[in-house]
Amino acid sequence: MQITLETKPYASLETDALVTPVFESDDPIQGRAAELDQLTGGLLKKLATSGELTGKTLEFTLVHAPAGLKAARLLLVGAGKRDQFNVATLRKVVGAALRALKAKSVKNFTFLAGGTLPAEDGSQAIVEGLVTGDFETDKYKTDKQDKKIESVSLVGFPEAETAAVQKGMARGRIIAESQNFTRDLVNEPSNKLTPRVLAEKAEAMAKEAGLAVEIFDEKKIADLKMGALLSVAQGSDEPPRFIVVTYTPANPKPGAPVIGLVGKAVTFDTGGISIKPADGMEKMKYDMAGGATMLGVMRALAALKPNVKVICVVPSTENMPGGTAQKPGDIQTAMSGKTIEVLNTDAEGRLILADGVHYAKQLGATHLVDAATLTGAIVVALGNINVGVFGSDPAWTDKLLASAKAVGEKMWELPMDEEYREFIKGSFADIQNISSGKGGGSITGAWFIREFAGDSPWIHLDIAGTAWNDDAKPWLAKGPTGVALRTLVHLVLSF
Ligand code: BES
Ligand code: ZN
Ligand code: ZN
Q1: What pTM was estimated for this model as a whole?
Q2: Which helix (H) or strand (E) holds 95?
């Protein structure tokens, strides 16, 4: 899909559709809507009077052959109240418009920006909305419809802002394409994406992007004594992989902070011997979303070139109940030397992250973030709306929450009181992989990972509820969301 900046007056543009947001108020005919009303001889006022045009969020009003415009259609998309309008709403408005027009076999359209947001942020959000909205999960369908948006032009930005708009557009492209790279990985079923295949794809991405990459096979993982990762992998015929991707800035300062991004990549989670119920188990192909997110972040960073070193660590394995699988009660020794009593083999994400976080620290990471589809409990707590955030260092956590707010991703911090830590103290080993107490399952899961982060500022993102959309949204296809990628890219860029 081509996305270009157009400077001609929009009334004279020949396009399949002219799309613009309309804001909700007692009189929605203001700003751009008032301009369009003038050009079309009072069309919008008529629609507003009849109650068809209110500006309510994602209300669609489609008019064919609008008088006074060269466009074949005019699509007015409700954008909600003007004072609540932000980049997140703009992204949704744009993505929903693209998906609606694509369904109608439209090939190209023009988006008329409303001028309510700073030009750079606005143009970035528009491109992000377009590129993520265009992503489909029909890779394995043989009867694919050839509905395709070929080009979109953006109009309505002041000429003095051209440089800022182009900057925003370029950044939006990089971030959204990286988000789609992540979504593409998450969408793959486990027979197509084993740990070995994930490692190959990570390596190919890194080489193309100009990032350093190392893949450890099962032998090297054993040499490094990553006992926690190996314990999960031992129940599967598929060998594990450990992926390390590094971004180094042009002028690295000695002694400067290094960010470590660690992502859980269980390419399929059956639960192991503590096996999951059959109903819904197919979804556990997305249990590698944390790892895919971190790889997508690295892909974006390679192009955006922040001034800080970033190390990405992705332990990857299947969690299977094979004849050699670990069993409840087994005691494992993590790479750090800590012993772990595995009371439930389905709490495997924290096991592989234990070695991932420890290794990231060994490589020199000073500030850690991990992302994982870690617990069903986070779905109970926050549904599929907010990412669960857990942190050991308020300053570091606040930075992440500020980034989430800036890019419009919903994240909610949960408490990490020392009292919860008691519940993972082991009876027969140093720690146990499930809580001995009642409730708070996401917090005790986070505490388990924190044991391996030690004193380093650390954040854990539980994306179990948010990495997968069970239903399509008007602005996004059903399935993988690529959540947290934009926040993490913002966090690194603003470090
Ligand atoms: N991958 C699951 C968590 C999960 C659940 C992700 C639902 C997405 C949707 C994780 O490995 C797991 O099974 N966690 C257990 C932990 C429990 C045994 C302490 C869970 O949440 O039930
Ligand atoms: Zn599990
Ligand atoms: Zn899992």
Answers
A1: 0.98
A2: helix 87-103
